[in-house]
Amino acid sequence: MRSRLSHCFWLLVALCFLSRRAAAAPRLPVRAVNLGGWLVTEGWILPSLFDGIPNKDLLDGTQLQFKSVTQNGYVAAEKGGGAGLVANRSQASGWETFKLWRINETTFNLKVFGNQFVGVQSDGSVVATATSPGKSETFRLVRNAGQNRMRIMAANRLFLQANKDSTVTADYGKSTSWGDDDPSVFAVTRVTGLQGEYQICNGYGTAKATPILKNHWSTYIVEDDFRFISESGLTAVRIPVGWWIASDPSPPAPYIGGSLQTLDKAFKWAEEYNLGVIIDLHAAPGSQNPFEHSASKDGSQDWGTSAANIAQTVQVIDFLASRYAASPSLLAMELLNEPLAPGASLESLKTYYRDGYNAVRKHSSEAYVIMSNRLSSPDPTELLEFAGGLPRAVIDVHYYVLFNSMFDTFTVQQNIDFIKTNYSSALSTVTKPNGWLSGRCPMQRRKSFKCLQMHRWMCMGRQHLDGLTGLSRM
Ligand SMILES: *[C@@H]1O[C@H](CO)[C@@H](O)[C@H](O)[C@H]1NC(C)=O
Ligand SMILES: *[C@@H]1O[C@H](CO)[C@@H](O)[C@H](O)[C@H]1NC(C)=O
Ligand SMILES: *[C@@H]1O[C@H](CO)[C@@H](O)[C@H](O)[C@H]1NC(C)=O
């Protein structure tokens, strides 16, 4: 379920700890649809935005394993990193897996298990010791079309070869016919890859990514969708955004400017069709989970590991709250989507949620402030007390009704019933007696993404699971 966490069917349980004040517009219950894949790209969108990328299977974060055809052994970074490369492993696992950082379609850095980069020393030996990549950590991957074979050219313009003593050196200059007798030929297994905002921007490069994303933003969701959402009886939209939106129109590389203007347009349409907007910070600086939908560069998760990183994230919230606080459509700011435990610690999350909450409150006393529970947390109630002290705070809990083939054949009613029966005890655990519950609920998964989008929605009710009865009316 990992890489597709955000765009599928899940439940959102929201406990709104309303202090004694009445709710502002839009009226409760809130029924919202998540406009996923719009301003934060994910690979599942059809038609694929990734198809035009040269070497589209070699994007940032792609994991490759190299097996020497002469040694019949996988290349490993000894000790997982910090030492030399060898080519004598009979099986491939973490130490035998290399993550790509893409410089361009043919040129890459190779990151190893321990997060060091593969590089070549002056004597030609190949080691994984650099903590950041420089010229000698840069490699050209030369493919043999049709066969999953590659040669790896180092910055010294010589190819890596697997020697008889299993060492790997960058000192092979001959041409190849890709045979099993060539020590510079490696059979390559692509273990996995990511398709998120980082990959699409860096995969195309700024110049080519700009028109592609601008076209996506202006065609994927259009005014007519807002009209349809409104006419269908929904009252709000949730819009995932990435942290780089706050530095529009010139975000740091590789991100592309323009998502802010699209969000402005979304607010205009929301106002026109009387819909609320939940702005959801889906991708935080450093990535709050290793998945592509948090715009992770290579599957790493570094959000929240420093005070500066948290402060930078709060700045994004401050920026967005300030920009949209005056809009009658600003329903809620969701401070962060799906931080993953234990990488996102409860301590840094609470620090961030407190500061982010205050940043929203500087600009709006009305907007709800939504705080995601941590994925994989051992205790789903860990934020209840904390959030309970903050007026108009909401806790977002995701329970999925997908990622299991069992759900493939479910009807809408079966989905709803599953939530009521199988998730009822989990939901009671995170629902306080005076709390509010919202279910972000699945309909069937459709081939057409538009249809899929339109079938995701949220409803909110006052009493525990009673809120879910609203679902059957949809
Ligand atoms: C890729 O980058 C390398 C190293 O900077 C450069 O030599 C090469 O020409 C580039 N290739 C393309 C296709 O841009
Ligand atoms: C692989 O080769 C290296 C270098 O010759 C050697 O130190 C290591 O013990 C070998 N490992 C295995 C599993 O054969
Ligand atoms: C869901 O709950 C029903 C009714 O209690 C039960 O029969 C079924 O096995 C449960 N399904 C799963 C996957 O837990």
UniProtKB/TrEMBL annotation:
This is Mannan endo-1,4-beta-mannosidase. Belongs to the glycosyl hydrolase 5 (cellulase A) family. GO terms for molecular function: actin filament binding; hydrolase activity, hydrolyzing O-glycosyl compounds. It comes from Triticum turgidum subsp. durum (Durum wheat). InterPro entries: Actin-crosslinking (IPR008999), DUF7910 (IPR057232), Fascin (IPR010431), GH (IPR017853), Glyco_hydro_5 (IPR001547), Glyco_hydro_5_CS (IPR018087). Keywords: Glycosidase, Hydrolase, Signal. Residues 211-410 form the Glycoside hydrolase family domain. Residues 55-189 form the DUF7910 domain. Residues 1-24 form the signal peptide. The keyword Signal applies. CDD domains: beta-trefoil_FSCN-like (cd00257). One of its GO terms (cellular component) is cytoplasm. One of its GO terms (biological process) is actin filament bundle assembly. PANTHER family: FASCIN, GLYCOSIDE HYDROLASE FAMILY 5 DOMAIN-CONTAINING PROTEIN. It holds the Pfam family DUF7910.
